[in-house]
Write the structure tokens for this entry.
Amino acid sequence: MNRRHWLSLPLLVCGLAAPVMINCGALGGMLGDVTGAPKCPEGLDNIASFDWAAQFKIDAEAAGKIKGGLLAAGELKTFADDIEKDVKAACAGIAGDLGAGAEFASAEDACKAAAKAIADTKGKLGAKATIAVNFKMPECHASIKAMADCGGRCDASVKPGEVQVKCEGGEVSGKCGGECKGSCNADVAAACDGTCSGSCEVDIKGKCAGTCQGKCDGKDSSGACKGKCEGTCGAQVDKAQCKGKCGGKCDMKGSAKCEGTCSGACTVAFEAPRCSGKVTPPEMKAECKASCDASAELHAECTDPKVTYHIIGATDTEAAKKLQATIEKHIPVIVKLAVGLKDRVLGAVKNVKAVIEGGITAGESVAGQLGGDMQAKARGVALVACLTPLKGAIDAAAKLEVSVNVSVQVQGSVSAGTQ
């Protein structure tokens, strides 16, 4: 965004405020005392229900753009803060486990330390060490509920609770309290009457070409086993028959109970439904549609990713154990953002920026036209102050993009040098 565009805000405020003797340096604390100046609403519900046109005496089109921008800004900032917190915690966990410190100022700092710690620890494993990594990638679907809630909140012509949302180019999924017809992505490995994509775990006593969980030649095992495996043998499969337990997606032959996420159809209404394609709202104002498109993506729900990491032939076995444990514990959070949410988040950020910039332009324009008597000028000052969260949202968008980028980098450091 043009920097001069932002610098115009304080200049505009001071210009409007001069006739009413407002100290621009302490503007935030004094606006409430200005005669005729409405107070800025706080919280998404209050922003949505606030009558911007009537309170500030501005046209409905500008009021809609301001409201749409502020609603989008509030959602973006909350999401960015949550992602920053989760990514920072995951990267700090890796860095701490590998002896590189655990206190960092930002997700970016924590993830840089984590990536370096992973590389340094790999260097201790020895030239003959081999590493095998397997990712069970998350499947992320846009939230139908978030779209419906946003539509009812942003556009007064759309009644809350009566928003009809469609899922186009994909299928609906969610918790199914009845019987599921389609596919079931189980929370835990379970029998699959159909084809399995993911891990297939079979009880075994003998040779295991996959991952042996149990005993390998009488010793505890949770990885590759060249001898006799006693326990379960897990292998990655893609749309294959699994006579054991399927840990992943089961494409079912008919209808059955699904203890995880059902995709396709459910004999009763889905709980927390989401869409693998594009969530299409009913007709609504342009600024609301862009904001609600972003809301559906920012509230996307993902299946849990899983990472298995095996190291064979390490000279420093203690370093190998620490590296395996911390990657399998913390990297799923990183994978969720770097793979599952990356494109959705970056697309949502682009949409939100456009809505926010529209709100800023509309707000500045109408505030500059509120001249004449003292009360009109006071409303102009107050309206400019209400635009302040929009700048914070631009900063939040930048922070969110950084979180995505460092997540991609850390995932890359995990995969580097693996089979």
